[in-house]
Design goal:
five-stranded antiparallel sheet, single chain, Lipoxygenase-1, Immunoglobulin-like, five-stranded mixed sheet, 4 helices, globular
């Protein structure tokens, strides 16, 4: 029996229970597949096995998982040492004659070559399983304790009276060396190091072969719970840190012992994994990502992924986004349940290049927080084409090298729509031959497209096997990018193109809401066929031509939103929305509104204007009036009148037709602003 000791930083407890299921389905289903690949960093062909396993997982999401078990003669103890006692035990249970080799649902006593995995996997995926399996792992990031619940439900009868449940922890993104005879898996290299994925780190069950479970008859539900202290480091010597952000858990049911191995595997699953703590208020920033594809604008959408791993519902959070020396505050309100994840969206104005961005979580449910995360945001330079019509025809001149069968290309929009694609082409007979391909693609006006060229072997289209290159031109024959030296690009190269047509912008009159003595919220709708570079509001006093600039956001409903807390009390303002598109500023109509005056309810409630509209005399009533001032729509004072009492008349015969603003000043210095119209 496997022993867990505190000296080894591993603690395990488990319990059985029979009750209603929480995670597992009770409907009959086909088998899921576990591929155990026996591998090692010294194995030069194992990268091809990794690639094949990755492709099988990608083709069968949620149905097939691979486990890389570093064991045997090619497994190395230098850093990173990924050998484990459990991996050695499983490796020893099968007949292994070469590497890479693997067993697919443990259907065979001997390891199978990588060319056989797909066929066996497809057979297993089509067979009905005797049972289903599902569960959840809750990881406390403070204590490193994982609480793991696994449910097995038998939709049929197993041929064995006792089966075996195995739970294993795997880890991704371990950087290290790797022998590679043929660049079989080029996408898994990063800056000269190999990215090792789905590595077996530990089997959490008491035995490497699993814990016995029974009964195994139709209608039986078995629930098993583990409390597992995740080690800081696994492997000796030269062990590897266990990164909580890169681990995941698999579980499977094996039928019986056959020889040393317990096989076959009836079905398996990936356990849902969340982080959780006992504290009531505990949000955590899971990551910062740049939303959407590559776009031809400096305004970039950023998403902050926040998870509630505390026990209370989160109803409010405050964030600070620090970028290029400026801090932007985001206030969020809503309901985020335990284990729930929320995407907090914002925008940043990003110059060309890649820049760091920091997000600080400063408050949650009214309590101060001190949590931080960093990420990056990128703005890719683009080539620009200005047109007058509704579309533009681009021309791609692609000179292939000998291996045209390795070359493909595509033009795509930011949402992933493929406008055009081509290749692969014919492999030429000559050792260094070339052949020119001329392709055309039509792009709508005001569209951003990304051209990407791929080489399957990862060595570009130049120069050992012919001098290949690519050039993209506009409809006038102007070269947008590329030349006869642009053939050395490795696995892929890409470039953005902005096709700018006539700009159409329509901004509605600004709606004003939630006005008090210093605050107002603004909203205006904008129809625009080009994403704006900047949006906001210009707000000014009617008595001043100088506007206050209020930054705005442009949301998914095509609304410009903004607010300010910098207004003066009892003042008439005019506000209009604006948008900057391709360097030009567009405005909507102005709206007039008035802020409140604290403590002037008596004057406010007593003021009356009549008749309104007027064509001759405007009667004004108000308690304790001292003076009256009248302003036109552009903020010019056109009349001032002293008042002694609660009533006054304003002669409007000299005023032109239109809207005017009247300011009433009381003896105590308080002011009230009103509007009236002159109609002729």
């Amino acid at each position: 029996m496997k022993k867990f000791t505190f000296a080894l930083m591993a603690l395990l407890a488990f319990t059985f229970s029979l009750k209603a299921q929480q995670y597992v389905s009770t409907e009959p289903a086909n088998r899921n597949v576990i591929i155990e690949e026996f591998t090692g960093r010294g194995c030069g062909y194992c990268t091809d096995g990794h690639r094949i396993a990755n492709e099988l997982m990608a083709a069968n999401p949620g149905r097939l998982w691979a486990i890389n078990i570093h064991a045997g003669g090619y497994a190395q103890t230098s850093y990173p040492n990924m050998i484990t006692p459990d991996g050695n035990t499983i490796h020893g249970g099968f007949q292994i004659s070469g590497y890479p080799t693997g067993v697919v649902n443990r259907t065979t006593a001997a390891g199978q070559s990588r060319s056989a995995w797909a066929g066996i996997a497809n057979q297993q995926l089509s067979q009905v399983s005797e049972c289903n399996i599902a569960g959840m792992a809750v990881v406390n990031p403070e204590t490193r304790v994982a609480t793991i619940t696994v449910e097995v439900y038998y939709t049929g009868n197993s041929s064995a009276d006792e089966n075996f449940l195995t739970v294993a922890m795997l880890q991704d993104s371990i950087l290290g060396s790797q022998a590679d005879y043929g660049n079989y898996n080029p996408t898994q290299w990063l800056n000269g190091q190999y990215v090792h994925t789905h590595i077996l780190r530990d089997v959490i069950s008491q035995s490497a072969w699993g814990d016995p479970i029974s009964p195994t008859t139709q209608g039986t539900l078995i629930t098993q719970t583990y409390e597992y202290l995740i080690p800081e480091v696994i492997g000796s010597p030269n062990g590897v840190d266990v990164d909580l952000n890169n681990i995941h858990f698999l579980a499977w049911v094996s039928e019986r012992q056959q020889g040393s191995a317990y096989r076959p595997i009836l079905t398996g699953c990936a356990l849902e994994m969340v982080q959780g703590v006992d504290a009531p208020i505990y949000p955590t920033i899971k990551g910062i990502s740049q939303a959407g594809g590559a776009t031809c604008t400096h305004t970039k959408d950023i998403e902050v992924n926040v998870q509630n791993i505390g026990t209370d519902v989160l109803t409010s959070m405050t964030f600070e986004v620090v970028f290029e020396g400026e801090t932007k505050t985001i206030n969020w309100e809503g309901e985020l349940q335990q284990y729930g994840v929320e995407k907090i969206a914002t925008t940043l104005d990003v110059p060309f290049g890649t820049y760091p961005v920091q997000v600080n979580l400063t408050e949650a449910n009214g309590e101060p927080m001190d949590k931080h995360a960093t990420g990056s945001v990128t703005c890719i330079e683009w080539a620009e084409v200005e047109i007058e019509g509704e579309e533009e025809e681009l021309t791609l001149e692609l000179m292939q090298d000998k291996f045209g069968n390795h070359i493909t290309w595509e033009f795509t929009t930011p949402d992933g729509t493929v406008l055009a694609s081509g290749g692969p082409y014919t492999m030429l007979a000559s050792g260094t031959g070339t052949q020119l391909h001329v392709e055309h693609v039509t792009v709508p006006a005001n569209e951003c497209v990304q051209f990407t060229i791929y080489d399957q072997m990862g060595n570009g289209i130049c120069c050992s096997f012919g001098h290949g290159y690519y050039i993209v031109k506009d409809s006038q024959g102007n070269v947008l990018f590329g030349d006869e030296d642009d053939g050395e690009f490795g696995e892929a190269a890409s470039q953005l193109i902005s096709v700018a047509g006539a700009v159409q912008v329509d901004i509605t009159q600004t709606e004003v809401a939630n006005v008090d003595y210093n605050h107002a919220d603004f909203m205006a709708h904008m129809e625009c066929n080009v994403y704006p570079d900047e949006v906001g509001f210009e707000c000014r006093k009617v008595t001043s031509p100088e506007p206050m600039i209020i930054n705005g956001v442009y949301n998914e409903f095509q609304n410009i939103l903004g607010y300010t807390d910098d207004l003066e009390m009892s003042t008439i303002y005019m506000v209009k929305a604006y948008a900057v598109v391709n360097g030009q500023t567009y405005y909507g109509p102005e709206t007039t509104f008035q802020t409140w005056m604290e403590g002037v309810d008596e004057l406010e409630n007593s003021v009356k204007l009549y008749p309104n509209p007027t064509n001759n005399i405007l009667n004004v009533e108000g308690d304790g009036m001292n003076s009256i001032e009248v302003y036109n729509a552009v903020g010019q004072r056109v009349m001032k009148q002293e008042v002694n009492g609660n009533k006054a008349q304003v002669n409007t015969q000299s005023l032109n037709s239109g809207v005017y603003f009247i300011r009433i000043v009381a003896n105590d210095g308080s002011m009230v602003n009103r509007t009236f119209s002159v109609a002729r």
